[in-house]
């Protein structure tokens, strides 16, 4: 069977690391490259985080490309230390001093365009961070979206609930203009895993403990980087996510990756046009679903609503049993 070809665009925080490991563990998936974007940390930290994940999984042959370090329009972005200042919990002390030499010289956006052009209609692009690299890609090559097989986005929201502002999800709030461009101009088949979707399909904290306590190198790495992170603290979430959705473990980016790896994971979805708000004082960066077609848009996206949580858990468990040949 021909392997599924994917490109991962990431702002590699802890949940991105979990999603990347899920792709690395999938035997029928071939990762053409990993492109980095600012978000959970500065893009330089993101590059280092991706290299660390690949090293843990003994998959250093996958090319890594440095991309956008700031939003498309505004000169600065929201500061967020959800996963620590470095994006991986601020616990890694033996960082590679030679990491820059391991990053490809080609810019991430150019690499994305090249890889997709070389493999037209065969590449699934999985976007796990702010959509800046994707917006730049369509500006440089207006035909870029139609060359893709499909696009999976982790980001946005469908109920107006926000996790970084009152109404906006983190990835879209970090660069609303890019989110707008992508959802307006990427006419390829597009799947969106929103923040609320991930939270409404959460796993248990008991599952999380079992996940990170497996006897494998990747599991030990994940246990380390989550050990001091408030995003994996039951206590710190009581006044945040738990208010909306109740207590549980959520690996946000892993839901988009799971859907890409195994389409049967998604059990229900909504097909409709969407829009990203750019002007609102409170709602800037919020994604809205136009289920009544009031916006008169011709292009719809697939917004996930429910999934097979057991299967997501199986994929997560397998992702931390790496390297495969240990």
Architecture overview:
The protein has 326 residues and is of the alpha/beta class. The chain has one domain: Alpha-Beta Complex (Inosine-uridine Nucleoside N-ribohydrolase, Chain A). 35% of the residues lie in helices and 16% in strands. It is built from 13 helices and 10 strands. It has helices at residues 14-25, 43-56, 108-118, 132-140, 144-147, 170-174, 176-185, 195-200, 205-212, 217-226, 241-245, 252-261, 309-319; strands at 4-10, 29-36, 64-66, 123-127, 150-154, 190-193, 266-272, 274-276, 287-289, 301-307. It has an 8-stranded mixed sheet, sandwiched between helices. Strands 8-9 form a two-stranded antiparallel ribbon. Helix 1 (14-25) packs across helix 13 (309-319). The two termini are 25 Å apart.
Strand arrangement in the largest pleated sheet: 3-2-1-4-5-6-10-7
Structural domain count: 1
Mean pLDDT: 94
* Total helical segments: 13
- So what's the overall shape? globular
The appropriate CATH architecture is: Alpha-Beta Complex
> From N to C, what is the helix and strand string?
EHEHEHEHHEHHEHHHHHEEEEH
- The count of strands amounts to 10
Task: Please identify the top-level CATH class.
Answer: Alpha Beta
List the keywords:
326 residues, alpha/beta, two-stranded antiparallel ribbon, IUN_hydrolase, Inosine/uridine_hydrolase_dom
């Amino acid at each position: 069977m021909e392997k599924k070809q994917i490109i991962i665009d990431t702002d590699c925080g802890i949940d991105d690391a979990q999603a990347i490991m899920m792709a690395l563990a999938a035997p029928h998936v071939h990762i053409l490259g990993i492109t980095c974007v600012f978000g959970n940390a500065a893009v330089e930290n993101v590059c280092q985080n991706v290299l660390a994940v690949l090293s843990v999984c003994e998959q250093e042959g996958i090319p890594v490309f440095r991309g956008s370090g700031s939003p498309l329009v505004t000169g600065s972005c929201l500061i967020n230390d959800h996963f620590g200042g470095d994006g991986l919990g601020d616990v890694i002390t033996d960082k590679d001093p030679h990491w820059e030499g391991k990053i490809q010289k080609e810019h991430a956006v150019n690499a994305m365009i090249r890889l997709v052009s070389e493999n037209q209609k065969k590449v699934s692009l999985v976007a796990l961070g702010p959509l800046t690299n994707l917006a730049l890609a369509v500006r440089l090559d207006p035909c870029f979206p139609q060359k893709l097989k499909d696009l999976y986005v982790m980001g946005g929201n469908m109920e107006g609930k926000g996790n970084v502002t009152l109404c906006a999800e983190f990835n879209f709030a970090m660069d609303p203009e890019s989110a707008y461009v992508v959802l307006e101009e990427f006419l390829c088949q597009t799947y969106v895993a929103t923040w609320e979707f991930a939270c409404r399909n959460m796993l248990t904290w008991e599952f999380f403990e079992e996940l990170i306590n497996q006897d494998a190198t990747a599991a030990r790495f994940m246990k380390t980087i989550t050990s001091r992170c408030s995003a994996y603290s039951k206590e710190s979430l009581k006044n945040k996510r738990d208010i909306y959705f109740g207590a549980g473990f959520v690996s946000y980016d892993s839901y988009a990756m799971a859907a890409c790896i195994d389409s049967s994971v998604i059990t229900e979805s909504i097909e409709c046009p969407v829009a990203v708000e750019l002007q609102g004082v409170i709602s800037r960066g919020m994604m809205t679903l136009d289920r009544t077609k009031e916006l008169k848009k011709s292009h719809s996206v697939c917004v996930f609503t429910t999934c097979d949580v057991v299967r997501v858990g199986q994929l997560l468990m397998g992702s931390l049993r790496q390297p495969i040949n240990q």
